[in-house]
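In this supplementary section we document a worked example of the pipeline. Step one takes a protein sequence of length 241 as its only input; no multiple sequence alignment statistics are reported here. Step two produces a three-dimensional model, which step three serialises into structure tokens for compact storage. The input and output of this example are shown verbatim.
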Amino acid sequence: MRGPPPLQHELRFWPELARLLTDPLYWAPTRAHGHERVRRPVLLIPGFMAGDASLTVLAGWLRRRGHAVRTSGIRLNVGCSGRDLERLDTVLEAFGEPVVMIGQSRGGILARALAARHPDAVAALVTLGAPVLDPLAVSPHVLRTVRSVAFFGDLGVRGLFSTECRDGACCAEFRSLLRKPLSPCAPALAVYSRTDAVVDWHACLDPHAECFEVDGSHCGMAVNAQVYCELERVLARSEEG
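The serialised model returned by step three reads:
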């Protein structure tokens, strides 16, 4: 059985970013559709060991399309999932209308749980390389980092998840929400890559979402031109009706 791709494959992030920034799709104005359409607001949630700034390129594209974009307020995504979910509840409530949620990696896991918790508040859900079926289905290198964060969390360092978060009461509802079916009323897209060197792509195949494969790196999911083509389609569906 083949193992995961070497971690060096993640260096493809840079050529992927370069291709996106030279693609007309990224810079083109929104296509006219005859009638004024409601542009759904968007909530962006970053991945593990990353903050909102990691999704700046995606946020810029969404704003050019006319979407109001709000970030999660996460500086470094290494917190207790249960507590993070409570904070994101507040962010979601502030919109006052259904939103499109886009989460990368661990951010996609949080977005998926949030969508299951508040189905009426979701216009669409997109997860990018998010191992929703098993949050620890990651490469050995990343798993060592996860264990290091948990070690310091166990020592009481504030803002970090601990080993208790995996099986403890603090994240019991969070784990339950990951198994809960999503509402069929809102489109859900799970993007994955077989050449992902960080996450086992099998764990990204949410049975309650449309699964879409791209050729690219894990870290480059948010700057992958193929992803933007699919996002354009999902955003259009979220604006119907």
